[in-house]
Amino acid sequence: MITRILRPRFLDVILVLAIAALAGYLLAHSRLAPDSAWGSLWPNITTDLFGIWLTVRVIDELGTVRSKRQEIMRGFRGNVNYSKKCAMDLLPQPRHWAMRSLDDEISGLTTRLDHQGMYLRQDERDRIRTAIRNLSAISLDAKELASIFRERTRLEDTMRRVFREATDEDRDHPYPHDVDELEALGSEYQYYADDPDIDSAKLVLAIEALRRTLPTLAISDPAQRAVTELADATEVAVERRRKLEQQVDQYAKFVRDTEVQFLDRVRE
């Protein structure tokens, strides 16, 4: 900021004139007649030039700071709004690119706050810090949910392998698609995992139906355990995604409030 204030501007011509007037007066005042009008007029002109320069400089600097603040406020408002999109992109299930975009936005907001936070008021800086904390919490939970989804996929592959091994040993052993409740679970899970707007109610009912039916199924013990683990992992995925959905919804509301506040401040 000091460098910007000291940077020469066109209006500094007034300062040059004031300095020249002062230097001329210091050199010439001893040669002026005692009753010369220049004896009082010259210092007054010099003082006025300094006063005009200082006043204009202050007004110009205040205008520059205000314009800079408005520009930075608009920038932070855009960053916060984009961070909401990054958070919403984590649903229905966190993808690698979405988690990376969110982490990049967290890093960018942190860096920008460090470099440009001086232009913000204390409550505005606090809001940006709150956004960073909320986004960091969302990021951590998204990574955990992504891990849970991967584990659920692994358990489903294991379950299918166990069923294949069982049918190789016993031709009368059912295949996964022979178990209606298991097929329903897979179908509802696929819908749920691909659409952020689908409620978990049908998937939860499918899990409960499978658990009720499981003891009556004529399948091997390893297959029973594999199906149980798959149902448990699906339930955990539903619970953790529900938590992430709540976090994202709360953050979206926070962003809307922040946008309104920042927009009002920009217009001041």
Descriptive report:
With 268 residues, the protein is mainly alpha-helical. The protein has a domain at 146-247. It has eight helices and no strands. The protein has helices at residues 2-6, 12-28, 38-88, 96-116, 122-169, 180-194, 201-213, 221-266. The chain is rod-shaped, with a radius of gyration of 35 Å. The chain crosses the membrane at residues 9-28. Keywords: Membrane, Transmembrane, Transmembrane helix.
Entry keywords:
single chain, 81% helix, 8 helices, mainly alpha, 268 residues
- Overall average residue pLDDT: 87
Percent of sequence in beta strands: under 5%
- Percent helix, as a range, is over 70%
What is the CA-based Rg, rounded? 35 Å
Brief summary:
Keywords: Membrane, Transmembrane, Transmembrane helix. 81% of the residues lie in helices and 0% in strands.
Write the layout of secondary structure elements.
Blueprint: H1 2-6, H2 12-28, H3 38-88, H4 96-116, H5 122-169, H6 180-194, H7 201-213, H8 221-266
